[in-house]
UniProtKB/TrEMBL annotation:
UniProt family annotation: Belongs to the transcription factor STAT family.
InterPro entries referenced in this protein's UniProt entry, alphabetically: p53-like_TF_DNA-bd_sf, SH2, SH2_dom_sf, STAT, STAT4_CC, STAT4_DBD, STAT4_SH2, STAT_linker
Residue ranges crossing the lipid bilayer per the database entry: none
Annotated protein name in UniProt: Signal transducer and activator of transcription
PROSITE patterns tied to this protein: SH2
Keyword presence, Lipid biosynthesis: no
Keyword Transmembrane helix attached: no
Matching Pfam families: SH2 (PF00017), STAT_alpha (PF01017), STAT_bind (PF02864), STAT_linker (PF21354)
Domain SH2: 487-583
Main location (coarse class): cytoplasm
């Protein structure tokens, strides 16, 4: 590992990150009861059967080409014997040629010539069949296999199952190329035999040029299709957000030639460029004329030494997009979503010179979005998701001129992938149902519902100042940075409406609580618990003010759940959280995530000076004991932890409650 990656530790970090991501996806998938429609389509049994058929046919073609080699060798030996016997007769005197033995030999030579003619026709027929089989395989099943692989790559880029099958495709492409070159050598051998012997009705000069032209045509197409982007452009700093590139930030991209021939090692130089296509809106209004160039090493040679599996590939690791200066005022036409809906692509070109053939190869990455500020990343990633979900066209750079609607059932599956790939656990059916309701309202079924791009990413949610996607992206960021272990353990219900929340809690033991994401605050999480009124006949529900990343940076969420206190009228502060829904003791669920045991206030802290009272952070809320009116959000404002610690140490609960009743904003 040190020898291979010593000069590029970021590369092995990306590899390990991808492995861990796939491990998380597998574990998350194991807990999901139903596969989504996209994943089912990728694992279609018909596709698997076609893969096996392709491998079987490629193997059969290779065997046929090798058998034809033996036929050509037999034809060569037969012609050499004919040449020898014919030249022997030609060297005799004229008087000797009239002997009976010589006439018999001439008859034998004529029979041998007839055999040569038959064998030439047979060999040409076999070569024609091999070429036809290769043509049919390339035109049908192999093309479909390559398109399926590219589609699986698209889906993997937006969080779906990691795609495989490229090594199998490489094996097929390589065997077909070897078979075509083998047939080409056989045709060259027939041409050599033709120069030594020809006759009236000789099939070689008639059929060979057509067969050679067809072989060269198939080689051209095979090489062109074999030049693929193995790993799409991606910034190493954001491995789960491929195809979003920031100006002046390095990105990596890897290409592979699926025809793995040793003679091509270090012989193919690949050049990378950026396609600069002017974006024109559907109303023919110029949207943007941003243009870019690539900085860094943009020409490299393909080789078999850098890849772990020995494939013929090249990886660009130090490319940077740089925006070219444009005319003054050009940015005035760019709306808030213009940059993140503008698509570009990274193009690659090279040339293969082999066996007298010169083949120009070109390929391009999937569309990428160029951003200049990291704040544009969420909307840029939404564009990448929508594009790759909605189309398998690899180069529709004007896609967002008129973006199509997407099936909600497939979109929800992709949203679950965002959680499984980015934070290690996907969404279950109940959580997805809540997201569906948020997107389309209280409709019965979303299986046939088509969601517009605007509703997903551009229009604000009803009564809110943000879009659905920005709300969801803020939750992903919150999980990643502050509650990841709790999310992976499955203890955060997260996506549940307030109405459903109360239905779940109303019959539970007092002190039962659940965790859900705030619908009104970006990147907020709250907990709601059920309590019983003193008469024992009615229950009440309390929801704490949502915790956002600012408050969670100061105190881990697990510690908040452990130390949280409420002050009820005439009561001592106590923790109301007893059981995580449905009935898991709180410490059993979160104990392993506590940062430390709460400190005793009375103990002198090691770092504290003499005479100081040590303090601990304890989240506190005040709840009025008034059953007539429900508590308002202002009743749940947190008390300063240090002040509460001092109050608890030196004042009685009655005095604390008196102070709380004075309506001070922060105690």
């Amino acid at each position: 590992l040190q020898g291979k990656y010593h000069g590029n530790p970021m590369h092995i970090a990306v590899i390990i990150s991808n492995c861990l991501r796939e491990e998380r996806r597998i574990l998350a998938a194991a807990s999901m009861p139903v596969q989504g429609p996209l994943e089912k389509s990728l694992q279609n049994s018909v596709v698997s059967e076609r893969q096996r058929n392709v491998e079987h046919k490629v193997s059969a073609i290779k065997n046929s080409a090798q058998m034809t080699d033996q036929d050509v060798k037999y034809l060569e030996d037969l012609q050499e014997e004919f040449d020898f016997r014919y030249k022997t007769i030609q060297s005799l005197e004229q008087s000797d040629k009239n002997s009976v033995l010589i006439k018999q030999e001439m008859l034998a030579l004529q029979a041998m010539l007839n055999t040569l003619d038959y064998k030439r026709k047979e060999v040409l027929s076999k070569i024609g069949r091999v070429i036809h089989e290769i043509d049919m395989l390339m035109s049908n099943m192999l093309t479909e296999e390559l398109l399926d692989w590219k589609r699986r790559q698209q889906i993997a880029c937006i969080g779906g199952p990691l795609h495989g099958g490229l090594d199998q495709l490489q094996n097929c492409f390589t065997l077909l190329a070897e078979s075509l070159f083998q047939v080409r050598r056989q045709l060259e051998k027939l041409d050599e035999l033709l120069t030594r012997l020809t006759y009236d009705g000789d099939p070689i000069p008639v059929q060979r040029p057509q067969l050679l032209e067809k072989v060269n045509f198939l080689l051209y197409n095979l090489f062109r299709n074999s030049f693929v982007v193995e790993r799409q452009p991606c910034m190493p700093t954001h491995p789960q957000r491929p195809m979003v590139l920031k100006t002046l930030i390095q990105f990596t991209v890897k290409l592979r030639l699926l025809i793995k021939l040793p003679e091509l090692n270090y012989q193919i130089r690949v050049k990378a460029t950026i396609d600069n296509v002017t974006c024109v809106h559907k109303w023919n209004i110029l949207c943007s004329n941003r243009r870019f160039l690539l900085c860094g090493t943009h020409v490299k040679a393909m080789n078999m030494d850098e890849s772990a599996n020995g494939s013929l590939s090249v990886e660009f690791r130090h490319l940077q997009p740089k925006e070219m200066k444009s005319s003054a005022g050009s940015k005035g036409n760019e709306g808030p979503h213009m940059v993140t809906e503008e698509l570009h692509s990274i193009s690659f070109e090279t040339q293969v010179c082999l066996c007298g053939l010169t083949i120009n190869l070109e390929t391009s990455s999937l569309p990428v979005v160029m951003i200049s500020n990291v704040s544009q990343l969420p909307n840029a990633w939404a564009s990448i998701i929508w594009y790759n979900l909605s189309t398998n066209d690899p180069q529709n750079l004007s896609f967002f001129n008129n973006p199509p609607a997407a099936p909600l059932s497939q979109l929800l599956e992709v949203l679950s992938w965002q959680f499984s790939s980015y934070v290690g656990r996907g969404l279950n059916s109940e959580q997805l149902n809540m997201l569906a309701e948020k997107l389309m309202g209280q409709q019965v079924s979303y299986n046939d519902y088509q969601l517009s791009w605007a509703k997903f990413c551009k229009e604000h949610l009803p009564g809110k100042s943000f879009t659905f996607w920005i709300w969801l992206e803020a939750i992903l960021d919150l999980i990643k940075k502050h509650i990841l272990p709790l999310w992976i353990d499955g203890y955060v219900m997260g996506f549940i409406s307030k109405e459903k929340e109360r239905i779940l809690l109303k019959d539970k033991t007092p002190g039962t609580f659940l965790l859900r994401f705030s619908e009104s605050n970006l990147g907020g999480i709250t907990f709601t618990w059920v309590d019983q009124l003193e008469n024992g006949k009615y229950v009440t529900f309390h929801s704490v003010e949502p915790y956002n990343k600012g408050r969670l940076s100061a105190l881990p969420f697990a510690d908040i759940l452990r130390d949280y206190k409420v002050i009820m009228a005439d009561n001592v502060p106590e923790n109301p959280l007893k059981y995580l829904y449905p009935d898991i003791p709180k410490d059993k669920a979160f104990g392993k995530h506590y940062s430390c045991q709460p400190s005793e206030v009375s103990k002198t802290s090691d770092g504290g000076g003499k005479g100081y009272v040590p303090s601990v952070f304890i989240p506190v809320s005040k709840i009025l004991n008034d059953t007539a009116d429900p508590p308002s959000p202002s009743d749940l404002l947190p008390m300063s932890p240090s002040v509460y610690a001092v109050l608890r140490e030196h004042l009685s609960p009655t005095v604390i409650e008196t102070a709380v009743s004075c309506e001070l904003p922060h105690l």
